[in-house]
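queue> pop job 88
queue> type: inverse folding (structure -> sequence)
queue> payload:
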């Protein structure tokens, strides 16, 4: 933690420029805990058996959790300047853990939607932005990379927590597993929360530690200097850049979450692979989803927002065109295409916070990104509904890929038109 004194020249007993690097793996651990929400598929089958639920019903707690996650992000951002990052993360972590503990005792679908959907989702929404805001403030020289490394944990969480939860369910039972996860997450989130501290306003690392390339530094300085006093005084809801970022992020989330939601069914129904192979493929896709976050964060430090957004859309466009003609036995096509889909979504979860920080008042980052993140919730809701509807209409998941390609093409045009002016 920061040493006493207004200068905060030390972190974890080290010079601040060195100690700040420890905040990144701590933030990654917090996001690893919160990202367990993406491992919901592990709980679905046991819950369907325990509560006699259908497939659509067992998806409802997950859908509500994603929605509450997105809706509570703005609240977390608004609370951070008042309560500080430490308290907001303590509250978020405690709420999330409480949701898991209550879910372990749920006896009906309604109780499960309330405990896991509303309470867990709300806790994640409150705490999610804290490690990002802290990383952004301590790394003014590498903001995109720092935030990408933090959200790496959220992307890789299914790869780590899903197998762990599966083993616990097999040996301890569903209720005990949810209890153990709740207790473990509470301990980890509290530990990380106690380290969350912001530097003084305008803090910069010593010149010897700065390695940011000159073009990225110049772009960041120009972006910061472009913020006028009136703009900094209010959230930029009516600006063209905000609207463009919200729309592009929403489309990116819609495309990515649509693909993620049908990854396993496409493998089973279209490519005709067995369930064990499908599970192994999901683990591979999770690696691409996680690794793309620091990669796109690094790109955000060096390229303009519209260029990085275009690249994320291109991944979906290429993957969609590949899958549009795929059929039984096309395993390589499936692996490449869905790796691109998962990488694109991971990329957006680095692009959006980095662009928010770059284009708007950095002192109000938490509040602004909380509002930007509602685009993720809108994309999640529409994406899961649309792909399911296309499957019902046409009887095959391959019918979703040409529309996805068209949406990705529209996204490229919108990014060029609406984000090109962003520095």
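queue> result:
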């Amino acid at each position: 933690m920061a040493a006493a004194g207004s200068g905060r020249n030390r972190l974890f007993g080290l010079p601040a420029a060195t100690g700040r690097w420890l905040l990144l793996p701590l933030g990654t651990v917090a996001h690893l805990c919160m990202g367990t929400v993406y491992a919901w598929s592990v709980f679905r089958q046991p819950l369907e058996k325990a509560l006699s639920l259908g497939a659509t019903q067992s998806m409802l707690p997950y859908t509500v959790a994603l929605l509450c996650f997105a809706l509570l992000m703005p609240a977390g951002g608004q609370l951070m300047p008042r309560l500080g990052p430490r308290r907001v993360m303590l509250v978020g972590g405690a709420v999330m853990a409480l949701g898991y503990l209550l879910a372990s005792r749920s006896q009906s679908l309604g109780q499960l939607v309330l405990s896991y959907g509303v309470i867990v989702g709300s806790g994640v929404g409150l705490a999610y932005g804290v490690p990002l805001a802290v990383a952004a403030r301590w790394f003014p020289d590498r903001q995109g990379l720092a935030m990408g490394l933090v959200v790496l944990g959220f992307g890789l969480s299914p790869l780590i927590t899903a197998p762990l939860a599966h083993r616990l369910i097999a040996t301890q039972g569903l209720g005990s597993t949810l209890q153990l996860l709740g207790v473990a997450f509470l301990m980890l989130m509290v530990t990380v929360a106690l380290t969350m501290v912001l530097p003084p306003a305008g803090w910069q690392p010593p010149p010897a530690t700065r390695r940011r390339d000159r073009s990225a530094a110049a772009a960041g300085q120009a972006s910061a200097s472009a913020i006028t006093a009136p703009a900094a005084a209010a959230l930029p809801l009516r600006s063209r850049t905000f609207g463009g970022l919200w729309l592009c992020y929403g489309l990116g989330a819609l495309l990515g979450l649509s693909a993620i939601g049908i990854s396993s069914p496409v493998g089973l129904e279209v490519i005709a692979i067995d369930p064990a192979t499908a599970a192994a493929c999901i683990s591979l896709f999770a690696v691409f989803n996680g690794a793309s976050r620091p990669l796109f964060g690094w790109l955000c430090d060096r390229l303009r927002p519209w260029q990085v957004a275009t690249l994320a859309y291109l991944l979906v466009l290429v993957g969609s065109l590949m899958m549009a003609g795929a059929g039984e036995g096309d395993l390589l096509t499936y692996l490449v295409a869905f790796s691109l889909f998962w990488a694109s979504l991971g990329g957006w979860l680095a692009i959006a916070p980095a662009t928010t920080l770059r284009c708007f008042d950095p002192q109000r980052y938490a509040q602004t990104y909380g509002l930007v993140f509602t685009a993720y919730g809108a994309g999640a809701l529409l994406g899961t509904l649309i792909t399911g509807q296309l499957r019902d209409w046409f009887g095959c998941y391959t019918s979703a890929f040409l529309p996805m390609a068209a949406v990705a093409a529209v996204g490229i045009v919108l990014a060029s038109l609406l984000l090109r002016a962003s520095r």
